[in-house]
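User: I'm putting together a teaching handout on how sequence relates to shape, and I'd like one worked example. Could you take Glycosyl transferase family 1 domain-containing protein from Chryseobacterium elymi, show the sequence you're using, and then write out its predicted structure as tokens right after it?

Assistant: Happy to. First the sequence, then the structure tokens directly below it.
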Amino acid sequence: MNHFTGGCHFSWGCEGYMNICDNCPAIPDESQKNVAKDNLERKYQNAQKASFQIIAGSGLTLEQAKKSKIYREQETIYNINSLIDTTLLNDKNKSIAKKIFSLEEENFYILTGAQNMEDPRKGFKYLIEALEILDQQLPEDLKKKINLLVVSNSINKEFDRVTFKKQKIDYIKDYRLLSLLYQATDVFVNSSIEDSGPMMVSEALACGTPVVGFDTGVLTNMVIDDYNGYKIPMKDSLQLAEGIKKIFELDKNQYAVFSKNAVQQVQEFSSYEYAEEIFTKILEQDDQKTL
């Protein structure tokens, strides 16, 4: 959000960016409150002088940009959801990915992750609550099939509460290896409660892995209920558990449809080809204005 706020990258519900950012809750020092206001005004004036146009990077950012003081008068705000290179991130090896990681075919693998699991924005406490609920709902024989894979530099100690088998995976920089990991897992769970992405949502979908998560960031318009995952009301741990359970209960044919739909959603709304279409439209509009 930094392009249209007085400095914040995430608003946490604050609507100052819609007006003048004159009472920023992120600045405790009253004598410095004017900094956010001055920043926003400077951005506004620069945008007006240079006729800036914004392209949103997620459904959430799109809605925020439409309401912002700087860009609400923009005729059309296009949205590209976490641009994905589908030559690297795809589902071409999904049928053998579990074998590559020595994962058991009959087990169900939940993937989640973040660079900083202590960040409240990432909402991991809700995921932990959801997994505790899921543990209560499933019989013992099914509990044994569930495994949690966490990609992060460090694990939040609260994850000790999770009774399912769990494994930490160090942060992966190689996109080919990351693609295989997505393909090897059965669902990606995003518990973020304030996010313009995360990239992992679109990356997982590109690899044919259904996504369950809260209705924010790219998940807002990349995940469709009963199509490629489940979009959950914010901070609702019970429904988050239900969404995971629904994916767990899919038979092979049903899962294959979800997986295919996940890939299709990225191809249509998050691929390089889609981005090319958007930029072509923008350039054509600019050409018409100069005629």
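A couple of points you could highlight for students: The first helix runs from residue 34 to 50. The chain has a mean pLDDT of 92.
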